[in-house]
Amino acid sequence: MATLLEVKNLVKHYRSGKSRVHAVNGVSLELTKGEVLGVVGESGCGKTTLGLLITRLVKSDSGDIVFEGNDITHLSQRTLRPLRAKIQMIFQDPYASLNPRMRAGEIIEEPLIIHKRGNTHQRHDQVMELLDLVGLSPNDYNKYPHEFSGGQRQRIGIARAIALKPDLIIADEPVSALDVSIQGEIINLLKNLQKKFNLTYIFISHDLKVVSQISDRIAVMYLGKIVELFPAEKLSFARHPYTQALLTSVPLPDPKRKKEYKPLGGDVPSPVQLPTGCLFHPRCPYREEVCVNVEPQLESHGPNDLASCHLTHKVPKEIPI
Ligand code: SF4
To answer: Which helix (H) or strand (E) covers residue 150, if one does?
Structure first.
């Protein structure tokens, strides 16, 4: 399979007064065409910043972003313009991401106009086709965002994102602002579109259950780093204590879990002052002295299966899900 995206040792720190916030701290990953990579972690783990760095909406401090074989890390905004059509984003908040003064049809058509695709008649037909593809009706063309429900607004955002037939879509928490019943519908829509057009997604969410419903592989981030990267079908065999803690925090009525697995305690440490050794050690129930002093590196545990933990032999082999 062809590699679409390669991210190498990407770093982004923000200045906050005299302090330095370690938002993304050396992330490397590869994505093949037609693949769905889920990126999961608690709030503040750097997953949204990672998405913004890959789209070049935010500039990295160091590291490389190679897209379709071309290094795009340092391209100027002008040179980046054609690339903007190839990488699109779906945002978390469908209320905030749509211009309230534009009609749905105009919102979906806007990227086609910016990138000079087709004439007025062709663009109109294409918008009608896109409305149908995302499950909206032709009558919705002339409606304003406030006339739609949250789920319908996210359908408009999705139609806009796929209008230019992008190679990569970065969906940042695309369902977290929606009711649970609607979340499933939007995930199914994204899955169907992915299959139909062989789209490639980076699907960012704080919710491991949501991520596992759509992803081929899952990257787990903690304090700006990937701590585990594995095939989604091996979810219950995740070996990093943080991933296991995220898994066991999914509310399922399984009394066995309460006895065997310790819930994730405490808050994520400040990204200004990172812990020594393993970033997860202040919250890890398995930690030993080595964890406090030596930073574990991502190590291979099988094909497409990486984890950074000194003591994977100590953690449960399988978490029932
Ligand atoms: Fe826990 Fe140690 Fe593994 Fe870090 S290296 S996750 S502290 S067991």
So the answer is: helix 150-162
Q: Give CA–CA dist 321/318, Å, rounded.
A: 9
224-243 pLDDT, tens digit per residue, is: 999 999 999 999 999 999 99
Which atom of ligand 1 is nearest the CA belonging to 290?
Answer: 2
* Radius of gyration of the chain from its Cα atoms, rounded to whole angstroms: 21
- Spatial strand order of the sheet with 62-67 comes to 19-32, 3-16, 62-67, 70-71
| Alpha carbon distances (Å) from 52 to 10, 88, 133 | 12, 11, 27
pTM listed for this prediction: 0.92
Atom of ligand 1 nearest to the CA of 314: 8
Pocket (CB within 6 angstroms of ligand 1): 241, 278, 280-281, 284, 286-287, 291, 296, 309-311
| CA of residue 247 to ligand 1 center, whole Å | 16
Here the tokens at position 294 are 């030596």
Sign of the Cα pseudo-torsion (156, 75, 173, 320, in order): positive
Return the higher-pLDDT residue of 272 and 187: 187
